[in-house]
Design brief:
By secondary structure, the protein is of the alpha/beta class. It is 27% helix and 35% strand.
Length: 142
């Protein structure tokens, strides 16, 4: 489980200010880095496109926004549980990872979507938050 604690003043920020703060953290600390998933060995590149997709998606709430600034830890500890062929140009597969996360003692699940390109590289695309394990999750095995 990935445990995330944030300064109390984050709760006082508007959602737009929080999104901009988390994007700033992503830009300065995470953008362009590679994360190795400890369960599968997959090497995932962190792109600003993926962070912006997660942050500025319709309905992105407080916890989802906060998770973007810790996406390296979330991806490192996720369990791969789904691979689907992609219909998008230049993308072969979309891979789902599930990570149990605690944000200020509130437990939830983060599903991260990774796109595997024609060149074989993997990129963080976006994430969703669930309160329960998704129904299609099968203990991390494909």
């Amino acid at each position: 489980m990935v445990k995330i604690k944030y300064p109390k003043y984050y709760k006082d920020l508007s959602i737009n200010d929080l999104k901009n703060k988390c994007l700033e953290i992503f830009d300065t600390k995470l953008k362009g880095k590679k994360v190795i998933n400890s369960n599968s060995g997959a090497i995932i590149k962190l792109s600003k496109k993926g962070a912006k997709h997660a942050l500025f998606a319709r309905g992105a709430g407080f916890n989802k926004v906060l998770c973007v600034s810790k996406i390296d830890q979330i991806l490192r500890h996720g369990k791969m549980y789904s691979i689907e062929r992609s219909k998008s140009k230049g993308v072969l597969f979309v891979i789902k990872f599930l990570t149990e996360v605690s944000v200020d003692s509130e437990n939830m699940y983060v599903i991260t979507f990774i796109r595997s390109t024609n060149s074989g590289e993997m990129y963080y695309d976006h994430a969703v938050i669930e309160q329960k394990k998704p129904q299609d999750y099968r203990n991390g095995f494909l």
